[in-house]
Amino acid sequence: MTAPGLSQSRLLGSLPKEERERLERVSAVVELRQGDVLVSRGAPIEAAYFPLTAVTSSVVELPEGRTIEVGLMGGEGFVGLSLVHGTKRSSSTVIVQVPGSAVKIGSDDFIREVVAADGSLKLFLSRYADAFFELSTQVTACNGSHADEQRLARWLLLVQDRVWSNDFPLAPEFIGSMLGVHLGRSIAALTALKSAGAITYDYVAVHVLDRDRLLGASCRCYQSMVTTLDEVFRPHSAA
Ligand SMILES: [Zn+2]
Q1: Distance 40 CA to ligand 1 centre (A)
Q2: Which of 16, 59, 120, 203 has the largest CB neighbor count within 10 A?
Q3: Per-residue exposure over 98-121, b if at least 16 CB sit within 10 Å of its own CB, e if not
Q4: What H or E segment, with its residue span, contains residue 96?
Q5: Alpha carbons 209 and 154: distance in angstroms, whole number
Q6: What is the pTM of this model?
Q7: 222 confidence band (pLDDT: 50, 70, 90)
Q8: pLDDT band at 67 (very low <50, low <70, confident <90, very high)
Q9: pLDDT digits (tens, 9 = 90+) for 16-37
Q10: Cβ(88)–Cβ(80) under 8 Å?
Q11: Burial of 132 (0-12, 13-18, 19+ CB in 10 A)
Q12: Could you tell me the distance, in angstroms and rounded to a whole number, from the CA of residue 189 to the centre of ligand 1?
């Protein structure tokens, strides 16, 4: 099996070769475990992470100690958004949702090689940071207005787009913490999608049986989020 490389990241893969090679000298591919906390709200950011096969989530704490996801990142994004503005303090908490690999670049190296160098990557990252903020607003609106099973379908579609697989190691408790609901509601939403023939699940994983049915069960937020992200990578004229 070939080791994951920088080009598996949609952001890093879109860079000119010279810029990518410069970053390779200051980066390392690391394995991330589910639940790892990559950055904590208000704490210094030690490193930026560009997920390759891992998927990460930006989460906020709700009253009663529960959490809810306000944004998710895979190969199209990166963790450590504040670094783009040269700020080392994180404005959010980011955890690993689906284990896998990521490219890690220390904060000082990132600021020197990306932010100060002011090359193509900084432009992409600034666009991505803006898109991520817009996505977080969309997720918050979705969380507040759509049914659990619609939100679960939307979320599973976004995860599937990033893991390139029909199987995800996601337990119902963990899914509940992403949707901001108790275990009972998480299982009810999973059961609804299972009854619709879209997925099967057990206590450790979800398997997508029929993506079209999952699309049919999702709210329109999924398509709108895909469009927002595609805009980051659309060629922009220099004018
Ligand atoms: Zn929605």
Answers
A1: 26
A2: 59
A3: bbbbbbbbbbebbbebbbeeebbb
A4: strand 93-98
A5: 15
A6: 0.88
A7: very high
A8: confident
A9: 888 888 888 999 999 999 999 9
A10: no
A11: buried
A12: 14
